[in-house]
């Protein structure tokens, strides 16, 4: 572990950290040539980067951290009560990229439409229940962090609870299908619990037509090993806002994979909180935005405990007029989280003109006693020279384009580790590419 | 036997200052089995000729023709030209994000042959070709040209030449940036391609060094968008000694005694 004192830091210590970070960067995610890459390794001073970082940032008193009070994740309002959240104006730091007009009322209306129908396919050892609002397990991993999430919390009628009992190791994946049946704004609630030592893969398959705000709570018990794959393959007119909060137990592992392909607007906010020391989080995402689609992902890794590891990698492709993607990656390393090792990276591949990819890593570090912390963000274009090179080797234009996108996104697909899902996604990406050829 | 025929080729590009003519009437015939060296000062249009043969969209042919066994090459798209048997080893090979060499080579081979290569023999063929060119096996898993050194990129161009087996190869300064050993390895690759298949070569170079390994039957001197002189291999030696001054001095009327 590299030790860094609060203020002055020996150059050697600084070097050591930097090396760790670069090493990770190489192993974790090969860089893409031709990309304008922006990245940073840990500097000895706690750092805030992002839109308000740099000159605009200043010290504040919260938790001994640095940064701007309302941009610090530690300082963000959380509450189970909708009334605690002011109405959205769209200028708030966490809503500034989201077109509120297109939210289908999720931020202001009563969410009393029918929630997407839930069907669960699971081995007999798994407990699947539908429970009322007063069930003790509701609220066990999450608390709304924004108004749309709180609105769903205020309006959901029942929740689906999936429990993998202690010590159970499942070979087959658990498939939770959430099928939307219309455009009346609705609220949804799902709780997934992997009890101590359990090992499983849960797939949340969002499909059909819906306008829905969803809260997903995930409890990963001590030494459990859980993979959650959330697929967004909604109809073109659907709106989906999903807060997915994961609480990670002692020496437990979570792999969270978000795949957003379909929907008019998808806004996913996966949060991982380490509740005990020694946890590990792999947080991956893949998105493919077509003309007019808004796909937004905001990851938050809360290193609230010592000796935890997190690795975030989101990759996205964009094609068509007004395709818009947003990735905001918050990592907070709290004062007590000594021995933290964290890295986050976002890469976007822009395939046509008229697209926009926003990418904002935010790293807040309140202790110097960490293994490493780094981030990178890169947005590149598939340009005429790439195309010429491939075509000059006999490869037709459409095949060349696919070759590049497939290769780019495959890195995430390969990490899922569930062959049937990997195949499904490979096909889904092909369909996206075909749609773009027209 | 095949013939690549370039006749009175005029090529221009769009620049910020307007349209600029770069090739001003190039005539050249290459037959399979032949090696032609093209030498000439910087900016004389050698890469322009190479890119125009390959079909780079930046270059506009204003008059003249390129035919391959009588077929109009200029009417073909870039990928069609490659499938027809033309290959350009680029002066500056492009890095392609997200695509591994393995995937790229297989896809290109399948496109050129019109059918996927048999997996077992293909894998071996790639491996052997890489070994002969002293390209590390782990390059197969890396993205196309990504992070390759200048010399490594050139070797990988020749790797493709050997695997794709074109009828005509244009090598644009493949020798630049190669160390002495690499120059030998790469030259051997080109010679193998010549010996194995039925290939004609257009070798663009600044140095006679490579001509010790790859023997051209013809040498063409390119000056200001035209061929100013042509001759046999001895012309290359003379150029090495004398430079291009005498062509440049009287560029307009550069008709010289042919060797
Ligand atoms: N995009 C461009 N804009 C302006 N001028 C260009 C452009 N591309 C090529 N040229 C010009 O065309 C001329 C021919 O260039 P070309 O690359 O064909 O030369 P070359 O003979 O290959 O030179 P070298 O030996 O340096 O490789 C040069 O004067 C060059 O500056
Ligand atoms: Mg050149």
List keywords for this structure.
heterodimer; A: 438 residues; alpha/beta; nine-stranded mixed beta sheet; 19 strands; 17% helix; 39% strand; B: 259 residues; six-stranded mixed beta sheet; four-stranded antiparallel beta sheet; 8 helices; 27% strand; binds adenosine-5'-triphosphate; binds magnesium ion
Report on this structure:
The complex is a heterodimer of chains A (438) and B (259). Chain A is of the alpha/beta class. Helix content of chain A is 17%, strand content 39%. Chain A has helices spanning 11-28, 147-155, 384-391, 397-416, 419-437; strands at residues 36-41, 117-121, 127-132, 158-164, 174-181, 186-194, 199-209, 211-220, 225-234, 239-248, 253-262, 265-274, 280-289, 294-303, 309-318, 324-333, 341-350, 356-365, 372-381. By secondary structure, chain B is α/β, with parallel strands linked by helices. Chain B contains eight helices and ten strands. In chain B, helix 4 (119-132) packs across helix 5 and helix 5 (150-164) runs parallel beside helix 6 (180-196). The longest helix of chain B is centred in the C-terminal third of the chain and has 17 residues, at 180-196. Chain B is globular. The interface between A and B is medium-sized, with 31 and 33 residues.
């Amino acid at each position: 572990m590299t030790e860094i004192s609060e203020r002055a830091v020996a150059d050697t210590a600084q070097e050591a950290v930097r090396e760790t970070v670069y090493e990770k960067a190489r192993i974790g995610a090969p860089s893409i040539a031709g990309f304008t890459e922006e990245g940073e390794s840990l500097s000895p001073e706690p750092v805030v980067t992002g839109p308000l970082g740099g000159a605009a940032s200043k010290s504040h008193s919260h938790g001994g951290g640095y940064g701007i009070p309302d941009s610090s994740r530690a300082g963000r309002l959380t509450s189970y009560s909708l009334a605690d959240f002011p109405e959205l104006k769209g200028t708030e730091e966490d809503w500034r990229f989201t077109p509120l007009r297109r939210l289908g009322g999720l931020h202001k209306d009563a969410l009393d439409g029918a929630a997407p129908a839930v069907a669960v396919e699971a081995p007999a050892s798994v407990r699947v229940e539908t429970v009322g609002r007063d069930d003790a397990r509701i609220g066990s991993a999450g608390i709304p962090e924004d108004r749309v999430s709180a609105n769903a919390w205020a309006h959901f009628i029942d929740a689906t609870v999936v429990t993998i009992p202690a010590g159970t190791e499942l070979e087959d994946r658990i498939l939770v299908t959430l099928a939307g049946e219309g455009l009346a704004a609705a609220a949804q609630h799902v709780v997934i619990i992997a009890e101590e030592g359990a090992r499983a893969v849960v797939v949340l398959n969002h499909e059909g037509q819906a306008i829905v705000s969803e809260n997903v709570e995930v409890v990963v018990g001590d030494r459990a090993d859980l993979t959650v794959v959330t697929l967004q393959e909604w109809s073109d007119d659907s709106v989906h806002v999903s807060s997915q909060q994961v609480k990670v137990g002692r020496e437990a592992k979570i792999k969270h994979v978000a795949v957003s392909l379909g929907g008019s607007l998808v806004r996913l906010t996966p949060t991982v909180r380490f509740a005990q020391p020694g946890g590990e989080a792999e947080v991956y995402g893949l998105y493919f935005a077509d003309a007019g689609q808004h796909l937004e992902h905001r990851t938050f890794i809360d290193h609230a405990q010592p000796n935890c590891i997190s690795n975030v990698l989101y990759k996205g492709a964009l094609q068509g007029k007004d395709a818009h993607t947003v990735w905001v990656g918050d990592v907070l390393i709290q004062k007590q989280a000594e021995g933290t090792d964290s890295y986050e990276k976002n890469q976007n591949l822009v395939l046509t003109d008229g697209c926009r990819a926003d990418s904002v890593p935010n790293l807040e570090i309140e202790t110097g006693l960490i293994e490493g912390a780094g981030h990178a963000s890169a947005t590149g274009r598939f340009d005429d020279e790439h195309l010429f090179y491939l075509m000059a080797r006999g490869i037709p234009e459409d095949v060349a384009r696919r070759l590049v996108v497939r290769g780019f996104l495959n890195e995430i697909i390969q990490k899922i580790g569930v062959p049937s899902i990997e195949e499904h996604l490979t096909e889904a990406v092909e369909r996206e590419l075909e749609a773009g050829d027209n | 036997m095949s013939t690549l025929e370039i006749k009175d080729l005029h090529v221009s590009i769009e620049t910020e200052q307007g349209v600029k003519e770069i090739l001003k009437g190039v005539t050249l015939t290459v037959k399979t089995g032949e090696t032609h060296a093209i030498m000439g000062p910087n900016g004389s249009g050698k890469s322009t000729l190479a890119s125009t043969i390959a079909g780079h969209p930046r270059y506009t042919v204003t008059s003249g023709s390129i035919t391959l066994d009588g077929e109009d090459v200029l009417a073909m798209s870039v990928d069609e030209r490659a499938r027809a048997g033309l290959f350009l080893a680029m002066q500056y090979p492009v890095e392609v994000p997200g695509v591994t060499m393995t995937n790229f080579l297989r896809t290109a081979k399948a496109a050129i042959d019109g059918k996927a290569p048999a997996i077992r023999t293909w894998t071996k063929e790639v491996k052997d070709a890489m070994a002969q060119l002293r390209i590390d096996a782990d390059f197969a898993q890396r993205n196309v040209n990504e992070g390759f050194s200048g010399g490594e990129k050139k070797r990988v161009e020749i790797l493709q030449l050997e695997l794709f087996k074109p009828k005509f190869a244009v090598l644009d300064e493949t020798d630049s940036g190669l160390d002495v050993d690499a120059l030998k390895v790469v030259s051997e690759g080109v010679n193998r391609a010549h010996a194995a298949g039925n290939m004609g070569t257009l070798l663009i170079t600044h140095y006679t060094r490579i001509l010790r390994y790859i023997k051209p039957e013809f040498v063409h001197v390119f000056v200001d968008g035209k061929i100013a002189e042509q001759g046999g291999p001895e012309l290359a030696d003379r150029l090495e000694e004398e430079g291009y001054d005498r062509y440049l001095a009287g560029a307009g009327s550069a008709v010289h005694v042919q060797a």
